[in-house]
């Protein structure tokens, strides 16, 4: 679902006029758009949604850009719009010894460093449950900014929170549960053949 559709769904649900285009000069757009941007950032950062996760090869930075004192020789730039880092790998081996300062990840390894990161999501790639949560947050913003109905806005936010609690385990079950530490000994024991 695109941004304009989400904005218009929220505006209609709160009894306001819909907008025709992005960057519409109307009061409705001037209230709904900041609510949308804020809610999208918050929703994406709040949980590691699969639609916002990606694994990227990290690019080295110049030594002057690496502020790490522990790993001053090998710094890598995190992808643009990274909200948080889930895992770091050297080829396929998970790393646990690294440091992040600003948008630079530093470690002992000189190359082939990958990061599983959560980035700011594109509204068109949202899961349907995330779309509904986002719409409820935009509705709350519209109720506060246009309708001045603060109690109803609070109820919409509470509804969004309840739906978020329901959505997270539902969406997370797509991937198998994993431990952060992956023991090589445990893996050897599990794959040992008799």
What topology does this entry show?
Layout: H1 3-13, H2 27-46, E1 53-57, E2 59-60, E3 75-77, E4 82-90, E5 93-94, E6 98-101, E7 104-107, E8 113-119, H3 128-147, H4 150-172, H5 184-191
Antiparallel strand pairs: 1-8, 2-3, 3-7, 4-5, 4-8, 6-7
Low-pLDDT runs of 5+ residues are none
The largest sheet has its strands arranged as 1-8-4-5
Computed structural class: alpha+beta
Q: Would you report the number of β strands?
A: 8
What proportion strand? 15-25%
The share of residues in helices is: 40-55%
N-end to C-end Cα span = 52 Å
For the largest beta-sheet, the strand count, sense and barrel status come to: 4 strands, antiparallel
Q: Over the alpha carbons, how many angstroms does the gyration radius reach? A: 21 Å
Average pLDDT, to the nearest integer? Answer: 89
Can you tell me the overall shape? elongated
How many helices does DSSP assign? 5
Q: Report the order of strands and helices.
A: HHEEEEEEEEHHH
Structural account:
This protein is an alpha+beta fold and 194 residues long. The protein has five helices and eight strands. The chain has helices at residues 3-13, 27-46, 128-147, 150-172, 184-191; strands at 53-57, 59-60, 75-77, 82-90, 93-94, 98-101, 104-107, 113-119. The strands form two sheets. A four-stranded antiparallel sheet has the order 1-8-4-5, with no helix packed on it. A hairpin with a 2-residue loop joins strand 6 and strand 7 (104-107). Helix 2 (27-46) packs across helix 3 (128-147). The N and C termini lie far apart (52 Å).
């Amino acid at each position: 679902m695109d941004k304009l559709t989400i904005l218009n769904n929220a505006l209609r649900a709160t009894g306001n006029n819909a907008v025709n285009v992005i960057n519409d000069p109307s009061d409705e757009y001037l209230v709904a758009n900041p609510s949308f941007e804020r809610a999208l950032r918050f929703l994406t950062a709040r949980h590691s949604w699969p639609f916002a996760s990606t694994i990227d090869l990290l690019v080295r930075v110049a030594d002057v850009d690496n502020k790490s004192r522990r790993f001053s020789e090998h710094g890598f730039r995190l992808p643009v719009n990274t909200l948080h880092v889930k895992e770091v790998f050297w080829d396929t081996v998970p790393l646990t010894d690294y440091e992040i300062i600003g948008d630079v990840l530093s470690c002992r390894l000189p190359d082939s460093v990958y990061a599983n990161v959560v980035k700011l999501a594109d509204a068109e790639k949202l899961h349907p449950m995330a779309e509904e949560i986002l719409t409820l947050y935009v509705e709350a913003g519209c109720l506060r900014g246009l309708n001045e109905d603060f109690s109803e806005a609070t109820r919409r936010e509470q509804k969004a929170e309840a739906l978020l609690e329901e959505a997270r385990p539902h969406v997370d079950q797509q991937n198998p549960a994993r431990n952060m530490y992956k023991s090589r000994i445990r893996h050897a024991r599990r794959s040992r053949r008799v």
